[in-house]
Amino acid sequence: MKKIGVLSGGGDSPAINAAIRAVVRKSLALGYEVWGIKDGWRGLLEGNLEKLTLDSVSGIIFQGGTILGTSRTNPFKREDGPQKIEENVKRFQLDAIIAMGGDDTLGVAHKLNKMGIPAVGVPQTIDNDLCGTDYAIGFDSALSIVTDAIDKLHTTACSHHRVMVVEIMGRDAGWLALLSGLAGGADVILIPEVKFNYDDICRRIEERRQRGKQFSIIAVAEGAAPEEISTQVTQKATVDAFGHVRLGGISSVIAEEIEKRTGYETRATILGHLQRGGTPTAYDRIMATRLGVKAVELVHNGQFDMMACVKGNQIDSVPLEEAVAKVKPVDMELFETAKLFY
Ligand code: F6P
C-alpha cells in the first residue's frame, strides 16, 4: 500500500485540522495509508511519525491549532538535515509528503522535490502572503479575530476620547492589517508595502476632531515603517532558522509619536498570537477541506512539486517554486479602496 506523510509547519492557524482531516479522508478513500509527521519538519528529521486513521481526525474540523504540532525547523540549517530526512522517508516508506504552511515550510518542500523526495504543498498562513494563490488557510479566521478586536477598541476609544493604535501580524505583507482595517472601519491603515508619514496620520486625527470625532483607530501591520526609517521594529535582534526577525512593537512607537505631536491620549494594543488562535470560521473550514482534498489528488496524479491553490472560486494548482518565489504584496487597488474611508 502506498503511504503519504502529512505535516504542518511554521506558524499555526485555525483550520489546519480541517485540512489534515481532508487529507486523511481523501487518502484513505483512494487506498493510501497516511502518516502524521509531528511538529513540522522536525518530526521528519527525528523520525517522529504516527499512523493516522479515521478516528485520529474525527471531531477536529472545528478545533484550532494543529493535532500534528508545528515548529519553525529548517532541515537545511541542520547538520546532516537533508540526509536524515532522506533516511526517514525511506524508513517509513513514504511515497509522498503533503506539507501545510507558508513560504518557509513550502520552500523546504520544494527543495526536497529537487532532491528526489516527492512533496506537494497546501497554503496555510494567516499572513496570506503566498504567491500563486488567492487564499491561504487561516486568513479568514484571523481576519475575523482582528476585526472583532478593532470593534472592541472602538467602544473604549470612544469613551475615553483616545487614539488607539492596534498592531496586527502579517510579517512583510499587509493583507491582514488592510482587510481588518477596512472591515473594522479603521481611520488610518498602515502596511509594510507603503511607508507611512507621521504628518499624514496626525492631520487625519485632527480632521476627525474637527468633525467632532474625538477618537481615532489606527490599524498598523507589524512590518510597517515610517518614511524616515528603513528598518522594521523588532522584538529581538536574532533571526529564526529561516532568517526571519521577530517583529513587534511598532504600535508603541507610533502611539508615543502621535501623543507627542498632537497631545491626545494615545494607547497601543498588540494583538499578538490571539490572531492565530481559536475556532476556524466556516469559510476557512471549507477552503481547508477543498485544498486538502486537492493536495491528495496532486499526489495521486503524480503532480509533485506543486501547491494546491485558490484561483477565484476554483481550486487549482501552481508550481511550489512560483508559490515561494517572493512575498505576495497587498493588492494596491484594495489599498486605494480602503483609503477612500479615511
Ligand atoms: O507567519 C505567521 C506569523 O503569525 C506572522 O504574522 C508573525 O510575524 C509570526 O508568525 C510570529 O511568529 P511566532 O509565532 O514564531 O512568534
UniProtKB/TrEMBL annotation:
Transmembrane segments: none
Involved pathway(s): Carbohydrate degradation; glycolysis; D-glyceraldehyde 3-phosphate and glycerone phosphate from D-glucose: step 3/4
Residues engaged in binding Mg(2+): 103
Domain Phosphofructokinase stretches: 3-299
GO molecular function: 6-phosphofructokinase activity; AMP binding; ATP binding; diphosphate-fructose-6-phosphate 1-phosphotransferase activity; fructose-6-phosphate binding; identical protein binding; metal ion binding; monosaccharide binding
Keywords: Cytoplasm, Glycolysis, Kinase, Magnesium, Metal-binding, Transferase
EC number per UniProt: 2.7.1.90
Site entry (Important for catalytic activity and substrate specificity), positions: 104
Record-level GO BP terms: canonical glycolysis; fructose 1,6-bisphosphate metabolic process; fructose 6-phosphate metabolic process
Coiled-coil positions: none
Active-site residues, as the UniProt record annotates them: 127 (proton acceptor)
GO CC term, one of those recorded: 6-phosphofructokinase complex
Subcellular compartments: Cytoplasm
Keyword flag Nucleus: no
Residues engaged in binding substrate: 125-127, 162, 169-171, 222, 267, 273-276
Keyword Metal-binding part of the UniProt annotation: yes
PROSITE patterns: PHOSPHOFRUCTOKINASE
Record comment: activity regulation: Non-allosteric.
Main location as per UniProt: cytoplasm
Family: Belongs to the phosphofructokinase type A (PFKA) family. Mixed-substrate PFK group III subfamily.
Known role: Catalyzes the phosphorylation of D-fructose 6-phosphate, the first committing step of glycolysis. Uses inorganic phosphate (PPi) as phosphoryl donor instead of ATP like common ATP-dependent phosphofructokinases (ATP-PFKs), which renders the reaction reversible, and can thus function both in glycolysis and gluconeogenesis. Consistently, PPi-PFK can replace the enzymes of both the forward (ATP-PFK) and reverse (fructose-bisphosphatase (FBPase)) reactions.
NCBIfam families linked: PFK_mixed, PRK03202.1
Quaternary structure annotation from Swiss-Prot or TrEMBL: Homodimer or homotetramer.
Record-given protein name: Pyrophosphate--fructose 6-phosphate 1-phosphotransferase
UniProt source species: Candidatus Hakubella thermalkaliphila
